[in-house]
Amino acid sequence: MRRLFGNKLFIISLVLVLLFVLAAVTAGENSKLNVIRNVISVPLKPLQQGIQLIGGKIRDTIHYFRDIRTTKAENAELKIRIREMERELEKVHRLQKENENLKKLLSFKEQYTEEIIACNIISKDAGNWFEIFTIDRGSKDGVEADDPVINADGLVGRVSRVGLLSSKVVSIIDTESSVSARLSKTRDLVILRGDAQLRTQGLCRLDYITPDVEVSVGDKVETSGLNSLYPKGIMIGEIIEVVKNEGQFDYYAIVKPSVDFRRLEEVAVIKTGGEREGDNE
Amino acid sequence: MRRRILMLTLLVYAACLFQSTVFGYIEILRIRPNLLIVLAVAISLVRENMEAAFMGLVCGLAMDTLIGRALGWYGMCLFLVCYAIGMINSKLYKENPLIPVFFVFVSSLSVELMYYFINFFLKGYQDFGFVITNIILPESLYNSVLTLFIYPLVLHIYKKLDKYDFVHARL
User: Fold this and answer.
1) How far apart are CA A79 and CA A86, in angstroms?
2) What b-and-e string marks burial along B95-122, b requiring 16 or more CB atoms within 10 Å of the CB?
3) Which residue of B has its CA nearest to A167?
4) Chain B residues closer than 8 Å to A196 by CB
């Protein structure tokens, strides 16, 4: 036995086999073995948070003087828009009341009871291969794998792996991500996927559009709510290009997400876990 | 020995911290260097083969954790590459500062290629040319530049550790 462990070839093959097993076991997002990630992620979290904070402060200071100049013009413009919006809001309130009453009449069940956890992004993707970032909330705060992640502009992605204090979020522009989506105008179902080349520009693509579906530049895309992972009706983005291939049945379109992934700082996790547990019982 | 392990652990943690935060601010064309590859290769240039291989393994697993997908692929790539470097490093003329730069370039290239093949090519993504020119090559170049700063640091740390061990072994 002693001699066996002295043999380098044996050690190398043993390590390789163990690594293959480890990779196979940890590939699943709900695998119990994902706990060992905490060895790295827990001690790093406060430091990452600190650095992110300092970085933000520095950036704010640099941008301070430039911002002041643009602020005045923006302020005047926004005041006008606020007045317009207030008028519209009144109308919306009235409609909302009306809508509630009508829903009650129909005993319409809301698809999701929304509970939202606000999170800060403490680190962007560490390598160059994926579009996965780290948020500062983990299982301690009630985040669970597969929870959808949004921000004020629209859909960001979903939680992929949960650590104790932090978790990983896969953006919708990642190559492994696919979202069941719907065209807002025509209500046609499509699939939104990340693309290896488009992701570097912060874009993604709509796949498998059949010829009978009318798609044009400027159409809005939203979540369909059909695969039950993402709630219905969350804004995803806008079509900026339609690509038709010669001799192919279906075609695809390029979508610009309404979320700006390069400047993403704060996101919110929608908690769906409670409801899913309820379904199982 | 205990001091050595503590020191190296701290080094890996520091590398992880820098890789996940500060390096986000120094991205060029949305490409960031991979500090853990640079660190693993630098260490394997100053240590013998088995120790080099295991430091490569540790750095690789740390990188896997930072990325947040299946654990083990970077670990495996770096383990193999560092073992190979550890085998031939005694034959190298290390005073030449271009030697570590060259080694980091070649190993970044091979590690990232292996990673691409395992994680993308086998799953059917066929954008090989794009990946080579837009991700792997720029990253390898960036890593090589980074080596100019990291390799002297690693050399310095190991000299200190060796000196400490030497003094305490005699006592």
Assistant:
1) 11
2) eeeebbbebbbebbbbbbbbbbebbbee
3) B68
4) 120, 125, 127, 130-131
In whole angstroms, what is the distance from residue A135 CA to residue A276 CA? 23
Cβ separation B71–A22 shorter than 8 A: yes
SS3 A183: strand
- Is A55–B68 a contact, with Cβ atoms under 8 angstroms apart? no
Angle at A77 between CA A73 and CA A83, to 5 degrees: 150
ipTM: 0.80
Q: What CA–CA distance (Å, rounded) separates B68 from A163?
A: 10
Q: What residues in B contact A160, CB-CB < 8 Å?
A: 68
Beta pairing partners, A254: A205, A241
User: What does the angle CA B94 – CA B97 – CA B98 come to, to the nearest 5 degrees?
Assistant: 100
Distance (Å, rounded) from C-alpha A215 to C-alpha A217?
Answer: 7
Beta bridge partners of A168: A134, A161
Q: What is the DSSP string of B43-89?
A: HHHHS-HHHHHHHHHHHHHHHHHHHTSSTTHHHHHHHHHHHHHHHHG
Mean pLDDT for each consecutive 10-residue tract of chain B (171 residues)?
83 88 81 89 84 88 86 89 85 79 90 87 78 88 89 86 77 59
pLDDT in tens, A198-222: 888 888 888 878 778 888 888 888 8
Sign of the dihedral through C-alpha A136, A141, A143, A148: negative
Contact A192, A204 (CB under 8 A): yes
For tokens 């690509």, name the residue. A243
Q: What is the pLDDT of residue A80?
A: 92
Distance CA B143, CA A272 (A): 41
Q: Kindly provide the residue ranges of all beta strands, DSSP E only, lying in A15-153, ordered along the sequence.
A: 115-123, 132-135, 148-151
The residue written with tokens 């837009």 in the block is: B134
